[in-house]
Amino acid sequence: MQLRRTSLDTGDVEQVMVPCGATLASICPSCAERNKALRTAQCREGWHLEDEPIADPEPPDECQRQLAAKLADLPAEGDNPLAATL
Ligand SMILES: [Zn+2]
Fold it and tell me: pTM score, two decimals?
């Protein structure tokens, strides 16, 4: 990917090449090939999880419980629920 860099001091403009990081060869063949080589090396070196990560959220605190209770009661408070909460 070609970017233009302008020096704020001198006003000079230069073109710099930056890898786009695409992983699909249909988007950028050279970056896809580089990323594939990187992933291959990472797999060979064991850069992978042994188990699936399972997100275990914290139990809701008191404030979250009150907000959830208030949200659950909103439909019962008429046509303008915001008026009831303010
Ligand atoms: Zn690229």
Answer: 0.45
